Amino acid sequence: MIINHSLKRNIITGLGAVFLLVSCNNNEKMLDTLADYNTSKETEGYHFGDQIKLPKEVTDNAETITISFGDKESQGLTIDPKFFTLGDNNVTFIIKSKNGETLNQDATIIVYAKNPEQNISYEMIKDYPHDPALFVEGFLMEGNMVYESDGLEGASQLIKYTLGSAVPGLTAKQPAHIFSEGCTIVGDRIYQLTYRNKIGFVYDKNSLKKLSEFPMPNVMAEGWGLTYDGKNLIATDGSKNLFFLDVNDPSKVVKTLAVAGNSAVYENLNELEYHSGFIYANVWHQPFILKINPATGEVVGKFDFTKITGENSQGDSEKVLNGIAFRGNNMVVTGKNWPKIYEVGIQ
């Protein structure tokens, strides 16, 4: 049988087209299978140490699989804390197929804490008056002395008063364009954040005289909560992240820690308090307070303040629980425009 060169070229071209079509179909099938797998895992999530067990449709046809995390890459299909954070991680799977092609598939890998958070019980000890005109953003105590940062443009201030008194002893008012946020004590100084003004303030604790200002870190979208763990300032910006700041240069981020529970990622972290080795955090528009392990970001416990939140909000969704302090080992809580402060004993 004789096949002329023209016919031979047509056969080779046809075979090439068939091979290309089969290759494209295989690639699309691999990517579709990977996308379906990633979607199914978003609800279940992962925990640190888990293996990413990709479908055989992917692994059987892949020469190599790499996971890209922005400027980092790994070929180990393990949920490694060196690469992943708690909560949502936006990654790209880079697959070099056995036919030499490179395929990319974007995915969201959600990592949860291994252990369920404990529901922490408490008993009501006492309530105290609180000025309902105050839009609480930062709240802390030393002994019976309350230090409070109140927000809103045209009404922002730092005040100091004795627990039980609704009248401030000292007041440091902000310019009308400033929206004050969280505050914390470091020695004889008070540090205070602002919402969107991108600056923070430092005051003398005793006189509330403003001593200095500092630029807030660019990585923080906004200023929300603030506390101090004895080494670093810890701030929130309304995301899932805790930002550990250099107390001597608060514009410098020492580390960033994401926060999650066993089945939930906690966004909108707000007012903060550090006490006895743990971080306590309000979640904006939620009636509970989280107890967070500062080494891992895992939520180990939760306080439910639904009852007192309902009593004080009276149907106004902006009158949220937003104030955590400690008086000895008792927790003291309040909220935005609440008429009361509550002291509770932790059981």
Please give a structural write-up:
It is elongated, with a radius of gyration of 27 Å. By secondary structure, the chain is mainly beta. Strand 21 and strand 22 form a beta hairpin. It contains three helices and 25 strands. Strands 5-22-21-20-19 form a five-stranded mixed beta sheet, with no helix packed on it. A four-stranded antiparallel beta sheet has the order 2-1-3-4, with helices on one face. It has a four-stranded antiparallel beta sheet with strand order 6-25-24-23, with no helix packed on it.
Spell out the helices and strands N to C.
Answer: HHEEEEEEEEEEEEEEEEEEEEEEHEEE
List unreliable stretches of 5+ residues.
Answer: 1-22
| Portion in strands | over 45%
Radius of gyration: 27 Å
For the biggest sheet, the summary is: 5 strands, mixed
The tally of strands reads 25
Dominant shape:
elongated
What is this structure, in a nutshell?
It contains three helices and 25 strands.
Topology:
Layout: H1 5-44, H2 56-59, E1 62-69, E2 72-74, E3 87-97, E4 102-111, E5 118-119, E6 122-129, E7 136-142, E8 145-150, E9 157-162, E10 170-173, E11 180-186, E12 189-194, E13 199-204, E14 210-215, E15 226-228, E16 232-235, E17 241-246, E18 249-258, E19 269-275, E20 278-283, E21 288-292, E22 299-304, H3 306-313, E23 321-327, E24 330-335, E25 340-346
Parallel strand pairs: 5-22
Antiparallel strand pairs: 1-2, 1-3, 3-4, 6-25, 7-8, 8-9, 9-10, 11-12, 12-13, 13-14, 15-16, 16-17, 17-18, 19-20, 20-21, 21-22, 23-24, 24-25
Key words describing this protein structure:
347 residues; mainly beta; five-stranded mixed beta sheet; four-stranded antiparallel beta sheet; 3 helices; 25 strands; 15% helix; disordered N terminus
